[in-house]
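During the second half of the funding period, the structural biology subgroup turned its attention to how the target accommodates small molecules. The most pressing case was 9D3, which had performed well in the primary screen but for which no bound structure existed. We therefore specified the complex as follows and requested a full 3D prediction, including the ligand pose.
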Amino acid sequence: MIIDILTIFPDMVAVPLQESIIGKAIERKLIGVRIVNIRDFTSDSHHTTDDRPFGGGSGMVMKPEPLVAAIDSVRATDPPARVILLSPQGRIFTQEIALELSQLNHICLVCGRYEGIDERIRRYYVDDEISIGDYVLTGGELPALVVLDTVARLIPGVLGSSQSIEEESFVGGLLEYPHYTRPEVFKGHRVPEILLSGNHGAIRRWRRQQSLLRTWQRRPDLLKEEKLSSEDKQLLAEAIQERKD
Ligand code: 9D3
């Protein structure tokens, strides 16, 4: 999969991509990431990427010409790309959308800046528009990294193979159970005794119960009655009664 990032702040996205799992995936050519500086597509001596809004008002608008030249430059490369604008007006990004994007061979992430881009670009050059949530950022660069990170880890080989099986169960699934590692006693706080018991059946039940309880407490919107088995319902009822948290 090729992922292009179009931005006027290439330094803002470059370094995070060198690190950790994504850095490894790029090294191993499991994904190809190209950072395209929109400013390289300006033709005036000041390398202008913004201009004042028609009709007046405060703030600036991204000029169409450099943006379109940058989009055309990636459109010219195979395979055909889905051009995605990161914008507060987009559909809210979810794991399901990440799964959808991970099936594509080429995506082009356009990072908006200033008050936004000229509307004609959105209408005639953009295929899809994504927001990462209802809060105000300064531009689309961090959202582009969020989308890239989420999509890349779904590409076969990017994560260890064991994780892919767990993946399916996340979408609309439960929150994780609590994790513990050594030492057994940390500043006087003990690890739950059951995790040291060696009783794997009991441990599996306890973890499932903790997942159910946490989801019920923190994210009741994720708890779909019809998705719970009768054993789940029993475990949850018991946890609620015993305040097992
Ligand atoms: C003062 C400007 N805004 C009125 C509330 C409009 C506005 C324009 C541009 C607000 C933010 C931005 C910059 N943000 C993004 O480009 C952006 C974004 C975001 O702010 N939140 C969540 N997802 C995204 S994706 C791109």
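Two results from this model are relevant to the next phase. The chain has two domains: 2-152, 167-244. The mean pLDDT is 95.
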